[in-house]
């Protein structure tokens, strides 16, 4: 499903070039549950952003579902991402002026889905994260755990085969964090390919496959 071959990612910082990823090779099979761990600045988020098509490598190739997506246009990448990949962020990234239901609905609107179909899908998504009673609440009226549940519902509303989560419990207390991990693992059990970046070793070790990255290189 996911194949990275000799991926490099360089950033220009002033007059210096900083290498965030250095020749990364990685294959992830459909339905796997993978955690990515490593110290701060090791390249974890850069790796996930490239897999999510939110960033492009400086060199190397990325094959997704048998197609090379390394040098696609922004519009093509947006379409591929919308149809194949869900992304959950540490800081939720919900739109403050929209309700929970409207935040979940946004990807459907961008995809041109009919209004009645959107309403049905949003109601189903809210039910799956046990937040039907919070549909009309705005983000500032929700707890951290509820915000992340809404973010997960939004990430999954297009039924992507891949779900990427960057420190999804980083802003949550331990109880809410474990509820989020349980929800993500439930999605994986339903067949979704799950990759989680985490600093929490207890969370990382729950994955069926664990990757450690140091200085832009996969250590094991």
From TrEMBL:
<dbReference type="GO" id="GO:0016887">
    <property type="term" value="F:ATP hydrolysis activity"/>
</dbReference>
<dbReference type="InterPro" id="IPR017871">
    <property type="entry name" value="ABC_transporter-like_CS"/>
</dbReference>
<feature type="domain" description="ABC transporter">
    <location>
        <begin position="2"/>
        <end position="220"/>
    </location>
</feature>
<dbReference type="InterPro" id="IPR017911">
    <property type="entry name" value="MacB-like_ATP-bd"/>
</dbReference>
<dbReference type="InterPro" id="IPR027417">
    <property type="entry name" value="P-loop_NTPase"/>
</dbReference>
<dbReference type="GO" id="GO:0022857">
    <property type="term" value="F:transmembrane transporter activity"/>
</dbReference>
<keyword id="KW-0813">Transport</keyword>
<keyword id="KW-0547">Nucleotide-binding</keyword>
<keyword id="KW-0067">ATP-binding</keyword>
<dbReference type="GO" id="GO:1902495">
    <property type="term" value="C:transmembrane transporter complex"/>
</dbReference>
<comment type="similarity">
    <text>Belongs to the ABC transporter superfamily. Macrolide exporter (TC 3.A.1.122) family.</text>
</comment>
<dbReference type="GO" id="GO:0005524">
    <property type="term" value="F:ATP binding"/>
</dbReference>
<protein>
    <submittedName>
        <fullName>Sulfate-transporting ATPase</fullName>
    </submittedName>
</protein>
<dbReference type="InterPro" id="IPR003439">
    <property type="entry name" value="ABC_transporter-like_ATP-bd"/>
</dbReference>
<dbReference type="Pfam" id="PF00005">
    <property type="entry name" value="ABC_tran"/>
</dbReference>
<dbReference type="InterPro" id="IPR003593">
    <property type="entry name" value="AAA+_ATPase"/>
</dbReference>
């Amino acid at each position: 499903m996911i194949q990275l071959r000799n991926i490099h990612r360089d950033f220009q910082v002033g007059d210096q070039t900083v290498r965030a990823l250095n020749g990364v090779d990685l294959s992830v099979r459909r339905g796997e549950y993978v955690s990515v761990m490593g110290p701060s600045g090791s390249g974890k988020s850069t790796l996930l952003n490239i897999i999510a098509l939110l960033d492009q490598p400086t060199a190397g190739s990325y094959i997704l579902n048998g197609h090379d997506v390394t040098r696609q246009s922004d519009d093509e990448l947006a379409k591929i991402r919308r149809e194949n990949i869900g992304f959950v962020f540490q800081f939720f990234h919900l739109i403050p002026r929209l309700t929970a239901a409207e935040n979940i609905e946004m990807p459907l609107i961008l995809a041109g889905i009919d209004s009645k179909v959107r309403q049905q899908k949003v109601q189903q998504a809210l039910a799956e994260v046990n937040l039907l009673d919070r549909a009309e609440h705005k983000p500032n009226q929700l707890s951290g755990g509820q915000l992340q549940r809404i973010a997960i519902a939004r990430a999954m509303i297009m039924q992507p085969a891949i779900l990427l989560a960057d420190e999804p419990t980083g802003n949550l207390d331990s109880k809410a964090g474990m509820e989020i991990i349980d929800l993500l693992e439930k999605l994986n059990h339903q067949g979704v390919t799950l990759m989680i970046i985490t600093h929490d070793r207890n969370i990382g070790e729950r994955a069926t496959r664990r990757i450690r990255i140091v200085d832009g290189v996969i250590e094991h």
